[in-house]
Specification:
The complex is a heterodimer of chains A (278) and B (197). Chain A has helices at residues 2-28, 37-43, 56-66, 78-89, 132-136, 155-159, 184-188, 213-219, 229-233, 258-262; strands spanning 99-103, 109-111, 117-119, 165-168, 171-174, 194-198, 203-205, 239-242, 245-248, 268-270. With 278 residues, chain A is α+β, with helices and mostly antiparallel strands. In chain A, the strands form five sheets. A two-stranded antiparallel ribbon of chain A has the order 1-6. In chain A, strands 2-3 form a two-stranded antiparallel ribbon. Chain A is elongated and about 95 Å long. The relative contact order of chain A is 0.12. Chain B is mostly helical and 197 residues long. The chains are: A alpha+beta (278), B mainly alpha (197).
């Protein structure tokens, strides 16, 4: 009986002491947190996608609180989050335009009726790791003939937390209904061909090939050859040709769509259409 | 070299290699399977475990030798050690948050996971069983943690590769990880005859 009492007393005493120590420690080691931090973090989607450039939503909220980061950097929360955060911080936020990811490669890997490949062509069969990074390291920069083309092994699909990017016909396509513009896919893409575009009726160049026209044509039936027809027809002088690839200056472009019709490769299109040709 | 230093070296070798906590003794399998998807998180977890195992073996040695043994309460070691470790990890977490925020950022998310880790309890119990003195206990704790780190980092590197390889659908994910863990454990069993001193 005595032994049980001693055991009880010792264990109970230890529990009590540790409890007291923890209680004291929580006071002594108390770290002051700004009371605005919790509501600020709640404004954010909580996906910790890292699109803002900070370590998760908490990190971004903290940076905003310290005044290191601007409000409105959260692509996924968009305008709604920006307005709510501005309210908490007591400032006014400008309207944040919705941005989405866009794969700058039009190619699809298909064959026509005669069995001839159309779209993005392959050098041969690749049977290595199903991983874009691994494939891009294969001699000659990967299995696609085009050195800029989408490899189609879905590193972006695996990086996407919103199930918004999928490999269709061997090439990654963004689902704009789901995309929040966090750009984690762009970070995962070894080719670096996923860029952020403003969602809407904007005209986009959906090719990344800086190769010369003849080289591009050898690897893809729908790549930009840098012919310059779009540049000539553009009434606003918004298009330039940078190393064999058309580039649009959005400060000048008014989305008239003349270049869309004139492009011989049909790879200039509206952003709402995304990469889909059909 | 004195016999005492030799015994410390013997503890070091056995804790890291020949009696590796995970791969030979099978303690701490839960974080081994759970936190081994990426090498850097595995390394973070390993470091946190090493840290906690070191201080836990010191604290448990003190509780065991100053309270339990003098009172003849050795049969309460398990429950007393759990109490000590849980409280200790909480205090350490608060301490780090206040004074070493950088370390807290690195280890913070792993610390609560370790509170009830069997490897940490295991090291305290083995210390008591083998009758190690204070220094031996701490060395065993820290090197056991290093052995844990070695195993989990090796395993995470294996998993990073197997995740990307083509394998039958039924083996994808955990089944393949378990097989890899088994093979790794078999490799470490090969060290079991190793006795330096």
């Amino acid at each position: 009986m005595n032994e049980i009492l001693i055991a009880l007393a010792i264990l109970g005493g230890m529990g009590l002491i540790f409890g007291l120590v923890l209680a004291i420690a929580s006071k002594v080691f108390y770290v002051e947190e700004d009371e605005r931090l919790a509501p600020l973090t709640e404004c954010l989607p909580g996906a910790n996608c890292g699109g803002c450039g900070y370590a998760g939503c908490g990190g971004y909220a903290e940076a905003v609180l310290k005044g290191e980061a601007e409000i409105g950097k959260c692509a996924s929360g968009g305008d709604e989050a920006a307005q709510k955060m501005a309210e908490i911080m007591g400032v006014k936020a400008e309207k944040v335009a919705r941005r989405v990811a866009m794969v700058r490669c039009s190619g699809y890997k298909r064959t026509d009726e005669d069995g001839k490949p159309v779209g993005l062509m392959m050098k041969g069969d690749y049977e290595g790791l199903h991983d874009c990074l691994a494939a891009s390291k294969v001699a000659g920069r990967g299995p696609t003939i085009c050195k800029y083309g989408c490899l189609g092994f879905g590193n972006c699909t695996r990086a996407c937390k919103y199930d918004a990017i999928h490999v269709v016909d061997g090439v990654a396509r963004v689902d704009f209904d789901k995309c929040v513009g966090c750009m984690s896919c762009a970070a995962a893409c070894p080719r670096g061909i996923i860029t952020s575009v403003e969602y809407g009726e904007h005209i986009v160049i959906s090719c990344s090939s800086h190769a010369k026209g003849a080289v591009t044509t050898r690897g893809c039936t729908i790549g930009c050859i840098g012919c310059g027809l779009c540049k000539k027809i553009c009434p606003k002088d918004a298009i330039t040709i940078d190393r064999n690839l058309a580039v649009i200056d959005y400060s000048k472009c008014d989305s008239c769509g003349l270049c869309v019709n004139v492009c011989p490769k049909k790879m200039i299109r509206k952003a709402t259409q995304g990469g889909s040709r059909d | 070299m004195s016999a005492y230093v030799q015994s410390l070296l013997g503890i070091l070798i056995s804790a890291i290699i020949s009696e590796n906590f995970i791969l030979v003794k099978f303690y701490g399998i839960c974080p081994f399977m759970g936190v081994s998807k990426k090498t850097d998180t595995a390394l973070g977890m390993g470091m946190a475990v090493t840290f906690v195992m070191g201080i836990a073996s010191a604290a448990c040695w003190a509780v065991d030798n100053l309270i339990l043994i003098p009172l003849g309460l050795e049969y309460m070691q398990t429950v007393a050690f759990i109490l000590v470790i849980a409280a200790l990890v909480q205090v350490v977490e608060m301490f780090l948050k206040k004074f070493v925020p950088a370390l807290y950022q690195a280890l913070g998310i792993y610390l609560p996971l370790i509170t009830t880790n069997c490897a940490v309890l295991g090291v305290a119990l083995v210390n008591a069983q083998n009758g190690y003195d204070f220094l031996q206990s701490v060395v065993y704790g820290v090197t056991g943690g290093l052995g844990f780190t070695l195993a989990i980092v090796l395993f995470a590197s294996v998993r990073e590769r197997t995740d990307k390889s083509d394998c039958p659908k039924s083996f994808e994910g955990f089944p393949l990880a378990l097989i890899a863990a088994g093979l790794l454990a078999m490799a470490f069993m090969g060290f079991s005859g190793l006795k330096i001193f």
